[in-house]
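Case study 2.
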Amino acid sequence: MNRLFFYLLLGVMGLAFFLFVPITLQTDVHYDMNRRKFAFVVYIYKRIKIIGGYIATYAGGFALHVSPKKVILVPYANVNSERKKFSFMKTFRLITLRLTAETGAEYLFPVATVNTALRAYFLAKGGDINRVENNLWLTDGDVLRLSVHSVVFFNLYMLTVNFLKFLKEKIKILWQRKKKSTT
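Prediction:
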């Protein structure tokens, strides 16, 4: 009987560990307007690469180049339907944000506005002022280069709660449709 309680306690502690241990994701994004490149990489715990590559456009949509031999094609027609699926973005908590923009005089005002808006958003979400960094470099010519480094965290408990809320809303909508159609 004592072994049963030991294994049960061990299982509950293991489940609690996996539900509440924080998972950190580090992302680096770089955009160069002149070379039409948008490169990205996502790491888990700053060491394990999840996905990385660059995004290019083609005649019918976007091409995500995730390896030298693998490309994921996303047609423009599917972009809106992909956006409406369950979003994990509400689950992530932003820890660190660093934005570096190198621009010419043409794009100075919009880039400065975006820099200010991102800083205000980060601080409004409860971020630490010491963990946000905005750099704006003014160069000569028609140049726009953006680099973003961010660190976010989540845990499986937060993910499960948001997924259950999403399911509840979907069931509620389906139930209301069915109720309308029967009356």
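The radius of gyration is 22 Å.
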